[in-house]
Structures are given as C-alpha cells and as structure tokens.
Design goal:
The complex is a heterodimer of chains A (326) and B (577). Chain A is mainly α and 326 residues long. Chain A contains 14 helices and 2 strands, in the order H-H-H-H-H-H-H-E-E-H-H-H-H-H-H-H. In chain A, 73% of the residues lie in helices and 2% in strands. In chain A, strands 1-2 form a two-stranded antiparallel ribbon. In chain A, a hairpin with a 3-residue loop joins strand 1 (170-172) and strand 2. With 577 residues, chain B is α/β, with parallel strands linked by helices. In chain B, strand 18 (476-480), helix 16 and strand 19 (508-513) form a beta-alpha-beta unit. Chain B starts with a strand and ends with a strand. Chains A and B meet through helix 9 and helix 10 of A and helix 2, helix 3, helix 6 and strand 12 of B.
C-alpha cells in the first residue's frame, strides 16, 4: 500500500515537472516579455538593463530552475496588465471558483447518485423516464444557454435569486473569503452551481444507472438473493459498492474540469473567479497569469487523480495485493 | 413424507408473440438426507425447476400451474416477502461458477455474518463463531484466519466451499445445487461431490443437484429425473434409470456419454437427438479437391517432434532483469506425434496443455526448445513464405464456438477466407463450390453459407470451425478442447465427425482435453500434463489400464464412476482391447 502510494506520488511529480516545463517555455518563448512590460520610448540600453536585471540573459536551465523554485513558493512574477504579483491575483480569485465548483460537485453527487440508483432499480417507472428525459436536456443544452435561461426565469421573471456576483462575502483569515456564511452569498451561489453541475449530474446519474443494471445481472447478486438477503442490502451493500470504481473515475475527472473550466458559467453569472481572470489574461496576452493558471490546473488534476487512485485501492481489495495474482 | 414436493409444475415465459413453456407438468419429491439429480441438456428446463422452487424465476417467468410444498406447507403462492424469508433459511442454493458467486468487494466474514444474522437471532460474535465453524465443516483450513480474507484470495475449489458454507448458514432443509461442479477441475470436483454427500447425510438435508453430467449423477444421487425440452421423461432410482433406461431419450443420452471404462469406435447416432440424422450428401473424399492434391511428402519418423519446450510468462515486470518474475507454463516438454495418429494431451486447468497447442501452431514463441514438423524446425522459421506454408498444413479448432468465429462475417466468407488467403483455388466459382462441399460434408448443408454465426447453435458453430480448419487442406489438426462447451449428445456428434474426417483424410491430430473419458475415445496415445510438465506418455489403452505415474492414477481414480451406466446401443461399437 505504501509502495503503491509513493509510486503514484512520484508519477504525479513527474507530470508536474513536465507541465512546469511547458508553462515555462510558454512564458519564455511566446513573445518578448520585455516588450510587454515597457513603453515604446524605452531605449535599447534600458531594455538590456531590464533584461539583465530580470535574469533573462541567464542560461536556459538556470532560468528554469529559478522558475520552478518560484513556483514552489507560489511566485509567478507580476501580471503585465495589473502590475501585481500573479499569486495575489489568483489567490484573491481562487476561493470564489473553489466554492462554486465544490457546491456544484456536491449538487451533482447528491442528486446524481440517488437518481442513478433509482432509475437503475426501477427501469420502467414513469419517474425514471422523467429523470432520463430531463437529464437529456442537461447533457444536450450548452451551459451558457442554461445559465441565461435560469437568469431569465429565476432572476428576471420570478426575481427569486440574484443574476450575478457572489453576494456578501465574509473574510476568513487573510486568504479566504467565503459566500457560504451569508444568506445573500448562498442565494447567489444557487444558480451558477446548478448551471455548472447539471452536466456532471446527468453524467453521474447515467453512469450509475448503467453500472447498476450491469451489476444486478451478476451471479453474486443472484446468490445474495438466493440467501434471502432483503432488497435493501442487496442494492446498497452489494450492488452499489460494485458500481463505484468507474463512477469514481468519472466523478474525479469531472470535478477537475469543473474547477478548471468554470469559465463559461463564471462569465454568464459575472462570478469573480479564476475563469474571468483567465479570460482577461488571454485577451491581453498576460502570459504570467496564463502560465500560473496552467500550472494550477495541472496541479488540481494531478491531485484529484492521486485521490482517485487511492480510492480505487480502498474500495477494491483485488487491487491491494500489488498485482500479486495474474 | 418428503420434505420437498413439486406437483404438476409448469413454468411459462410469456413474450409479446407467444408463450414459451420452460417446464411442463413436473412432479418431483425429495426426502431428507437424500439427493435428487435433475439431468438434461441445455434448454431442458432443469434450472427453471430449481429457480421456481426457490422463487427466483427470471422476469417474465411465472408458475402457471402446479404446487410446490415444503414440509407440508405450500410455498409457490407465498408473497414476495415471505418467500424471501424462506430463501437461505429453509431453502439454500448453490450456483455454478464459484468465481462470480461471491461479492468481490466484501470479506468472506462479512458475507457469512450478514447471512447468518439475517436468519438466526445471534450476536455478531456468535455469528462469527458459527461462520468459522461452518468454514471448518466445509473443509477450509485455518478458518479463523481465512475468514477475514476476500474472495479473490481463495482458489476456485475453495470458493465453492465458501459458497456451500453460505448456502448452509441457517441449516436449510433443502439445498438446490445448480451445476455445482461444472466449472471445476476433476480433482476439485471429486472433493466437492464428496463434501456435498457428507453434508447431506450429516445435516440430513434434502438436496437437488441440477447437472448435465451423467458422471455426477451416477456418483452422487439417490434418485434421478431426466428432462428433455421441458418435459420430465424419466424419473426413478438412479441405479435403475442409468442401468436400464426406459425412455428412448434417456437411452440415447446415456449412449452418448463418453466412458472412461470402455472404448467405442463411434458413438451411436440416435434419432431422438436432433440433428443426428445426416440428410446431406457426402462427397467422395478421394476424388474431391479436399482429398486430391494433398501434395504432402510422406515423412520418415514422427510428423511432429517436440523437444524440451520451455515457455515462460512475465508475471511481474521490473527495471532490472533480476527482479522480474516469471510463471513457467511449460517446463521442458517433449513428445512425438506419428503421422495419422491422434495424440492426446490431458491435464487440469493451468497444466499448460493449451499453451503447448499455441507453441506448436506458432502463436507463442517458446523460451527454449525445438519443434520439428515434417522435418522442418518450427520455432526458428523466419521466411514469411515458409511460415505461411507451415500454417497451411496446421489448423486449429478452438474451445469456445461463440468467440472463435467472426460474428460479422457470413459463413461462406469465414470458410472461404483461408482458401483465398493461401491461394488454393483459381476462380471464385471454384472457391464457392469447395465451400459448399465442405459445409455439406461437415453436416451443415449449403444453406448455411449465407447465414451469420449467431444463427447457429454451439455444435453447429463447431462444425463451421471444422470446415474452416479443413479449408486449407491441412494434414495436422490441433483441437483445443473442441467439445467442452457442448452438450453430451452434440459432443458425440462432433467427436464422430472428427473421427470420420481423420479416417477419410488421414489427418494427424493433437487432441487437448481435460476430460479423460473423451481422451480415451479419441486418442491413440496420450500425454498427461501437470504444472507445465509432461508426466507420462503412453498408448491410451495402456494409460487407462496400467497408469504408471502417481498423478495419472490419481486422476483416473477421481473420475466419477460410470460402471453402472447402461451399455444399450453400444454393444456393436465396443472396442475390445
């Protein structure tokens, strides 16, 4: 078990190293950073002096090492457009995005899993059919359209929920501001979280349904019934756990994409998260932000994958024996 | 009075178009401490009887008429909840495949304790003690430690013991075992049968054993019910039914069983079994394309000579060579096969017999050793032309008739492919004529050519496989368990077909099987394998009469006894040594 986890961590570090290299190359070779920083009237001598001061004349590997050392301490340099440290900018935006992603993941799981189990067990009931057709909408309509639809319905027409922003936030410590603790913060969270989570909910529901149908046909379920086990334990102890491995894979990957690609939803709801920051960075060729964003996204994916791998082993004892039996 | 009484049971599966009757007017009863066998081929409705008894008929099946009484109480009309409470507590069930019968994600302890506490008012600790005791009774060593393990940590035979322990959790009065030993090796089968018999007597349980295997019936049961297409055709004392079968179906079924104790020339073709009559025209092999132009030079000495073949599989990879782990599938195996004979390889699963077949046909490359076919070294063939020429002379028939044919190709293309590939015929019309003749000859008929594999039964598909193998005009056939997925009567037909083809074409065969009885019927000489080693090679008759190696003796002694089986219809075919 320990060997397994340390192998996985070593692999994760490798991935991070490669991503750091790509992100560094982006920083270094896409356009001249000096051009982005100074005005037109700067003389070549001043440019050269700045180049020297920023260490851009050092050999490639020195610069790369310096970049990695910086990245480990969350130092990504200054943003071109805001003239502020990138770490601060991202740090200010990160809580908003994480809270939104977390809320939408919880929404997707809390609804998706029971709906999947229900539709798997009661294939022919009318409620299952409603779930399946509604979920079809969730998977086929684009996110921005659903977002706008929600705003039109719940904010404009019914005026129940705010149409943009995070509402009131409470500062916790120096790094984190949360919308979970105020009523207006929670209200502001509802629409974007549902918009963002609808697709994942559909995916989880359909996956669990398909896996449930598969598992219920297996011999060990038949044998569990033949031992007289009640439906409750056949379904929730023996069947559901056996559907979990593929579900965890998909949920993990989806959670990663929720965090990394909340851009559209954030734009529609004017959510002050990283997505908008990234969008602005792309528009203004703000390479330090893009490079840092790339690293952060990769880091989130790597961590989630690591957790998924460990969860596999926790759930499935067959993976614990170090591939012992062929 | 009997514990379980089934009266006039009819089970139907209604579908949109019509109603399928899986079993018709079945009357059976079992006493405590007795074992009733229900025997029949696939589609006979024997599992349906078991499932109906325990109330687990698959949707949309239902009991349309008849009654089932358990110890005087009628149970077929109970509501779902009362029936559930009965399952496991008063009627236990054992399924065929021990590898899939247990929940892979829960420990044995969890599954046992869960079931025990469901049926008996015991505390967790008491239930655990009972579970350990049960595991001990079914013969699992160190039950106190092993109970905490997961199913994948047990071997197949051990898992079937766990399954039996689970079925016996609440001391049921009746146990239904559906093909309990079909997925197991002979030696494990013998142990499990012994265990079942012992538990039946000790615990005074009434047992119903559903099986297709006459050997199991002969070995284990007190009474037997023979089913055919949903009907109960014969029912009575096992010795009597097997020794003096009255119904023609029973007679033909028993005649089709390969015997370990006697050898027959051919299996009698009994009209009762569907498809046994051959309405198709027989081609005269000697003048046909198949028999003609067999331009093989006669060989001096053995046709195939295998020497010191060693085959290893990587089980654990590592950066350094030293840390890699291997599984030795073949350990210096060597034997000769003479032209025109059938050489048998027999052994339990994992003994390396199929690996040997794959090495010979060039699907695996051995780590060391040599194989000569007609004087040519096989393992070092480099030239593509030579490889092709070799492949043409050797063909293979696989075990699983369902996965060994491409389901998206019509039968005509399946059989024609090797002819075209090896450019054995000049025109398309000639190829088609050859395919038609082949299909006729293997007993399928020309009409089969336009159809797809899924439209055929297992036996018919195996005939397609044989036609495909013959299409290259080979002189050497490798048959890897060609009949082990088939019913006995179909098996008899396929074995007859192989024997006929061998006589007509002078084929040399390597015949691989786990079934000693089949080996005795088919092979001139036989090698016994275990753990990748060839233990003994001898003339088949000698091997059966005077086995030398201890393992061969053991295997033979574990064969279910079939001495009591009737020899009706067999007299003319018997080969006397």
């Amino acid at each position: 078990m320990f060997g397994f986890i340390s192998r996985r961590i070593a692999m994760a570090l490798m991935v991070m190293f490669v991503v750091a290299l790509i992100s560094f190359l982006l920083f270094r070779f896409v356009g001249d950073p000096i051009n982005q920083m100074v005005g037109i009237e700067t003389t070549p001598e001043q440019r050269e002096a700045l180049r020297e001061r920023l260490g851009l004349n050092d050999p490639f590997y020195t610069q790369f090492l310096r970049y990695i050392a910086g990245a480990i301490q969350f130092e990504f340099g200054n943003s071109y457009q805001f003239k502020q440290p990138v770490a601060d900018l991202i740090g200010r935006r990160l809580p908003a995005t994480l809270e939104l992603s977390f809320a939408s993941a919880i929404f997707a799981l809390l609804l998706g899993v029971p709906m999947g189990v229900y539709t798997g067990l009661n294939r022919d009931s009318w409620l299952s059919k409603i779930f399946l057709s509604v979920s079809l909408i969730g998977i086929s309509l684009p996110t921005f359209f659903i977002g706008i639809l929600f705003i039109f319905l719940f904010s404009v027409t019914l005026q129940w929920l705010p149409s943009f922003g995070r509402g009131e936030v409470v500062q916790i410590g120096s790094f984190w501001d949360t919308g979970f603790l105020t009523i207006s913060g929670l209200k502001a969270l509802i629409l974007p979280a549902i918009t963002l989570g609808l697709y994942q909910m559909t995916l989880i529901m359909r996956l669990i349904r398909a896996e449930m149908l598969e598992v219920l046909r297996t011999d060990h379920i038949k044998f569990a019934r033949a031992r007289g086990l009640p439906n409750r334990s056949v379904y929730y102890i023996h069947a559901l756990k056996n559907t979990m491995v593929p579900v965890i894979t998909i949920t993990g990957l989806q959670l990663g994409s929720i965090i990394a690609f909340a851009i559209i939803t954030e734009t529609v709801f004017q959510w002050p998260g990283m997505g908008i920051l990234f969008l602005q960075a792309v528009q203004n060729v703000d390479i330090p932000i893009m490079a840092a964003y790339l690293l952060l996204t990769a880091f989130i994916f790597v961590v989630i994958n690591l957790v998924v791998d460990i969860l596999y082993v926790v759930i499935d004892p067959r993976l614990r024996s170090e591939r012992g039996r062929a | 009075m009997s514990i379980l009484d089934i009266r006039g049971l009819t089970v139907q599966f209604p579908s949109r178009k019509d109603v399928f009757t899986a079993s018709r007017n079945i009357n059976l009863s079992v006493d405590a401490g007795k074992i009733l066998g229900v025997v029949g081929e696939s589609g006979a409705g024997k599992s349906t009887v078991g499932n109906a008894t325990i109330g687990l008929l698959e949707h949309p099946g239902r009991i349309s008429t008849g009654e089932i009484h358990l110890d005087g109480q009628r149970i077929d009309n109970l509501d779902a909840e009362s029936m559930r409470k009965l399952r496991g507590k008063r009627i236990g069930m054992i399924f065929q495949d021990p590898l899939t019968s247990l929940d892979p994600l829960q420990t044995i302890e969890f599954q046992l304790v869960e079931t025990i506490r469901l049926h008996l008012p015991l505390s967790k600790a008491e239930a655990r003690a009972r579970a350990v005791d049960l595991l001990d009774q079914v013969g699992i060593p160190n039950p106190d430690e092993r109970i905490a393990q997961y199913p994948h940590q047990f071997s197949g035979g051990m898992r079937q013991r766990v399954v039996i322990a689970l079925a016996l959790c609440a001391d049921p009065e009746v146990v239904i075992a559906d093909e309990p030993t079909t997925a197991l090796d002979v030696s494990i089968q013998a142990q499990i049968l012994k265990l079942m018999k012992r538990l039946c007597t000790e615990k005074n349980v009434a047992m119903i054993v559903i099986t297709h295997d006459m050997g199991v019936i002969a070995d284990l049961t007190d009474h037997v019910a023979v089913m055919y297409r949903g009907d109960l055709v014969e029912y009575g004392d096992s010795k009597q039914v097997l020794g003096e079968p009255k119904h023609p179906y029973t007679q033909s079924l028993i005649a089709a069983v390969p015997r370990p104790d006697v050898k027959v020339h051919r299996f009698p073709q009994v009209d009762y079994i569907e498809g046994s009559a051959k309405p198709f025209k027989q081609i005269d092999i000697s003048t046909h394309w198949l028999g003609k132009a067999r331009d093989y030079k006669p060989v001096e000495g053995p046709l195939l000579s295998v020497k010191d073949i060693t085959m290893k599989f990587l089980t654990k990879n590592a950066w350094t060579k030293r840390n890699r782990q291997y599984f030795t599938a073949l350990d210096k195996v060597g034997f000769n096969i003479q032209a025109g004979e059938t050489f048998g390889l027999v052994g339990e699963s994992g003994s390396g017999k199929s690996t040997m077949a794959r090495v010979i046909t060039g699907l695996y490359h051995p780590a060391s050793g040599t194989a000569h076919f007609a004087g040519q070294e096989l393992t070092s063939l480099k030239d593509k032309k030579q490889v092709l020429a070799m492949r043409r002379q050797m063909q293979m028939i696989f075990q699983d008739p369902f996965s060994s044919l491409n389901s998206r190709m019509r039968v005509r293309n399946i059989v024609a492919e090797p002819i075209k590939f090896h450019k054995l015929a000049s025109t398309n019309s000639e190829v088609n004529q050859i395919v038609d003749d082949l299909l006729e000859h293997v007993g399928l008929g020309v009409a089969a050519a336009a159809r797809f594999p899924h439209e055929f039964s297992g036996g018919q598909r195996q005939r397609i496989s044989i036609a495909r193998a013959l299409a290259t005009r080979p002189r050497f056939l490798v048959c890897d368990e060609p009949t082990s997925a088939l019913d006995v009567s179909i098996q008899a037909q396929i074995l007859n077909l192989l024997k006929d083809l061998q006589d007509e074409l002078g084929l040399t065969m390597l015949f691989i099987s786990h079934d000693l009885a089949v080996i005795r019927q088919m092979c001139n000489r036989t090698g016994v394998m275990r753990h990748g080693q060839l233990l003994e090679v001898a003339d088949t008759e000698k091997l059966f009469n005077n086995p030398e190696h201890a393992y061969t003796k053991e295997l033979l002694s574990l064969m279910p006894g079939m001495d009591d089986l009737s020899r009706q219809n067999l007299e003319e075919e018997l080969v006397t040594a």
